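Data availability (excerpt). The following record was deposited with the supplementary files.
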Amino acid sequence: MKDQVPSSPSLFRLIKRALLVAVPLVLLAAVFIPAPLETLADPAHPPNPAKSAWFLLWIQEVVSHGTVWIYPILVLALVFVFLPWLRPRDAARAAWFQPGERLPGTAVLAVFLAIIILTLVAQFLRGPNWQLHAWF
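Predicted structure:
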């Protein structure tokens, strides 16, 4: 245990505060933002464009440029799965936003922003036959 940093009580206090902020925000969003259900699926008349769920739209946007682009997405998913084990195991590095770790932090932030942008493009700028169109 001497090479580890205890997470109690500091981290648990932070998680508790985040929970006390996030849960009411999500509940308010659930009350005020409508989430209507679609009609039953009719295979004879599919919607145009047929879009994935909002959290998968970025993958649909990437794959619309070619099915071979699913492989970088899978590699990226594996990198994110193994990201906790790619860092050095040093107790002195047990702090957030270390100066020497600017590259991994920037890469994760860039991937996050790319996913957000691709989701927004797929949701609002794709029309019939998956063509780009202006939403305004």
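Summary of structural features: The mean pLDDT is 85.
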